[in-house]
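hi! just following up on the protien thing from before. the input was this:
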Amino acid sequence: MTVSLLWFRRDLRISDHPALLAACEVATSVLPVFVLDPRLLRVDRPRSRRLVASVRALADALEGRLVVRAGDPVEVIPDLAREVGADTVHVTRETTPFGRRRDAVVEAALGRDHRRLIATGTPYAAGPGLVVTRGGAPHRVFTPFAKAWRAHGSPPPAPPPQRIPWFDGDVGGVALPAVPPSGRSGGVAGELAARQSWLDFLAGGRLGHYSRDRDRPDLDATSRMSIPLKYGEIHPRTLLTDIASHPDGGTTGAATFVTQLAWREFYADVLWHWPDSAWQDLRPELTRMAYDSGPETDRLVEAWRQGRTGYPIVDAGMRQLLAEGWMHNRLRMVTASFLTKDLHVWWPVGARHFLDHLLDGDIASNNHGWQWLAGTGTDAAPYVRVFNPVRQGRRFDPDGDHVRRWVPELAHVPGAAVHEPWDHENGYDHGYPRRVVDHDDERREALARYELVRR
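and the predicted 3d structure came back as:
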């Protein structure tokens, strides 16, 4: 009997799983394993709690066959392979800087035992590094990347194995940690729930209207697939294949949805080529930008974190983040612009806060999205893009419903007037805070700082 380990990480599903197919092809028995790495698991964080819920759903789907071990994978994986006599360890290829470093160390440790780490597939439709310019260079701008990405295409979903020969020996493990109750669950975890949520999105007609409604936080118009994609409960290949065969697959809405998937792929590709861009400005010419710090800035940042800036659409987004572990993408842009351009704070401060609270917190998409708003990343547009929070609120929450939901102090203010409580005679009657800064003044200050670094 030959044994392979299948080490689950960002691929917590059974269907459309190339690494599972590869493990079945070379072994007569496959042992599924998940490692609770203390560097990645903090049960006080929403992402960790959601990860545990997803692993638990996978364990249920595998009917108790999943072995859970705790510790550093560089020790846990070789020890388990030695214990069961596995010659190969199969994984989905990792693409983040941390994951690549970890896998290189694990591969070396296995090699000393004459065992192999075999990486198959990626969490993306096109593996990072594959979509390049005609000259073979990586893309730094989204639009040409998206065009090349669409032309590159992706393989169809991996077929299910004819038979999965799960290991049936007695292998000990540890229990998954207890997760404290929280409203920030992101819905039911697991592959089956992700698949059903996606089918409900398609059946509900939201794909065809996606281009029209996706920027409206007051509407239930998005798929929220960012959370299942984060944990690999569903693969983007599956989404693309379903869209292509859907009656609305040829609509502008479907094309816009695919473009959003392309953004996810683009940011993963940028991180692959420039790993330092996870926490550093990608555009070196803006590294001299002046940012604020000190006690007063700390007070303003805390007001932003708690959703008490005095700008209703900003505060609604930040309060939704704290309550749900999720925020509408339009509001991610509005709140990021406010921190970086109105409060003049370097983007990693906001990126870390988002990663601390977002269930779908992905370092490539999150951190490069922040750089895009800050004007220091892949954005081909100028730094001078500064979101006006009042205009954004009036345009994308035209009746004020989203603000009134998350900012109860303004529930009495009717319609679009909720976006400017300072102009309503009773706007501050229920304790809503005054504006911490004047947007027009801070916009001028942001542009003045930009002019200084351009010289």
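The mean pLDDT is 94.
The domain at 125-156+191-273 is CATH 1.25.40.80 (Serine Threonine Protein Phosphatase 5, Tetratricopeptide repeat).
cheers
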